[in-house]
Amino acid sequence: MTKELTVKTAAGLQVYTPPGLVGVAANISSSDIQIPTLMLMQSNSTFVEENDNINSGDFIHSITMDCWGKKDSDPVDLIFFDMFKTQVVSDVTDRKKWVASLPWQPDMELDPYEQLEKDKLIRREKCFNYICFRSLEVVELANPVNGEILYTASPIVIKFKGGSLKNGKRLNQVFQDMATFEAPSWALRFNLTARHEENEKGKYWAYDFKKGVQSPMEMQSAAAKLCQQFQTAKRNMVVIDHEEGAPKNVTPVPNHAPKSGGIV
Predict the structure, then answer these.
(1) Where are the domains of the chain?
(2) 183-209 pLDDT, tens per residue?
């Protein structure tokens, strides 16, 4: 009898297949992967204007277009396992238009926030790109050949920039405090929420967070495995930049993550 690999999904389904047989994924390398983002909709977002079922304050998956949460519903429960920084360049002369996402360099701290370049108003924003997964999507892989049980999940990127940047700095301080006590970023679950804020340019929705409960072993195992994989393959990965409705734009992911422990 052929020995089989039992896969128990987050939905409780069981799939049986010979060990090592993964179908399409056998021909996919890290350079072929695009990491989706979780977008926080604004009132002037292209997706809000073009879709009647999407509203400002919604959390939208950039590829599936599924709504993961709303401003007035339960927060999105997440496990954070890695992060990288970029500079997002936009043309805000008429309407905000994405130009480029560049790997972050220390001297970029001195770049002006907005500057006229060839009659165009160019904005440069620091961006914290957090790689995480939903706690409810952890998948158990059980191999009856050796009894080993592994856990994994589907990653997604959340980008804190602009009005969300200050909340990203607060989140970074939490991760730094956890690292001080040798706790990895995935030791706790975090609740992603949306906060309505206002500045001189008007009202907008910003990412915010609350610390949740301790992560169970299965989630921590999945996060540790994903952290190792991402820090190995990060130089070949790309992130789709969907924020302004331009899915063709991609961002190389810089390979400057810490050696271990996730976000520090």
Answers:
(1) 5-252
(2) 999 999 999 999 888 887 788 899 999
